[in-house]
TrEMBL record:
The keyword Cell membrane does not apply. Residues 53-288 form the Fatty acid desaturase domain. Keywords: Membrane, Transmembrane, Transmembrane helix. This is Fatty acid desaturase. Signal peptide: none annotated.
Length: 311
């Protein structure tokens, strides 16, 4: 086990104390950043100077902590009261561009079926070739995952029986699409999914109208978000052992970047202890021996090797 210094223990206690109150503050910052990107920038700043468009660069770089807050809400850890937690998650989902009901169902299925059904880099050489698998793999890796989450709003008008039929048709041993559609077809989830989908379409329609001829700036920002989300998603699992839902990697980051990412790099700890809040992961990481599998940037880059054959 790694020895924990007195300074580290003090730091952990302080982090825990602050964490209980900081989440709402972070939620407010995230909402402000989303509204800055979608409304304030095109309405008040760009008319003064196109140079204000450079604000979109740091806003895109906030994608990881923004998703980390959604992730906290998915696990019911953003706010103590469940109803308030879910409302905050839905607001963040609308700003993110995908309904919270979809993100929550998909992520919880990821925890259940990780490295079992959810193993996107694996292909079976008996039924496919590397080239065929690579086409879909690289599309997903380089932005496609996020775009699928966004395009999912088109499912909102579908009746529940249609979603259930789609769940049956899409059900497969190497996909969570079947269980995902089945969960979305549940009355409570479907109602929230539809409400949030309408809000997303309305918000982004207004945003593009506000940008007008500079809409390409917003498209570029969405593209940057898509790349970050899609490239990060499976970096913690790429090439890890199959049929082990708790298998995930802890990836090394400088402490300042770890805090910026709300400790999302300690993903192995999270998979083993999904009930821990983001500010509790560092202490659990030390208790488990404090071992990193790879550096974060190394893990992200090695995915470019492409699909891996099932053995």
């Amino acid at each position: 086990m790694t020895e924990i210094s007195a300074a580290d223990r003090t730091s952990d206690r302080r982090a825990g104390g602050r964490g209980r109150s900081i989440n709402l503050w972070l939620f407010g910052v995230a909402v402000a950043a989303g509204l800055l990107q979608l409304i304030v920038l095109p309405v008040f700043l760009l008319p003064r100077s196109a140079a204000w468009g450079w604000i979109l660069v740091p806003l895109v770089l906030l994608t990881t902590p923004f998703w980390s807050l959604i992730h906290e809400a998915i696990h019911g850890m953003l706010v103590s009261r469940r109803e308030v937690n879910d409302r905050c998650g839905r607001v963040l989902g609308v700003l993110y561009g995908s309904p919270f009901a979809l993100l929550k169902a998909g992520h919880l299925l990821h925890h259940r079926f990780s490295r079992v059904r959810d193993r996107g880099e694996i292909y079976d050489p008996a039924t496919s070739s590397w080239g065929r698998a690579a086409f879909g793999y690289y599309l997903r890796l380089l932005g496609g995952l996020y775009l699928l989450e966004v395009v999912a709003v088109l499912l909102a008008p579908l009746p529940a029986p249609v979603l259930r039929r789609l769940a049956e048709r899409l059900d497969a041993p190497d996909s969570v699409a079947g269980p995902l559609f089945e969960r979305l077809a549940q009355p409570r989830a479907l109602g929230r999914f539809r409400t949030d989908a309408v809000a997303i379409v309305a918000l982004y329609a207004v945003a593009f109208a506000c940008y007008g001829g500079r809409g390409w700036m917003l498209l570029a920002a969405i593209g940057g978000r898509a790349l970050i989300i899609s490239l990060s998603d499976n970096a913690y699992h790429y090439g890890t052992e199959l049929d082990r839902p708790l298998e995930a990697m802890n990836l090394r980051l400088p402490r300042v970047l770890e805090r910026f990412a709300l400790s999302f790099n300690l993903h192995g700890v999270h998979h083993r202890h999904p009930g821990l809040r983001w500010y509790e992961l560092r202490a659990a990481f030390r208790r488990e021996g404090g071992r990193y599998h790879l550096g974060w940037f190394t893990a992200a880059a090695r995915q470019l090797r492409g699909p891996i054959a099932l053995r």
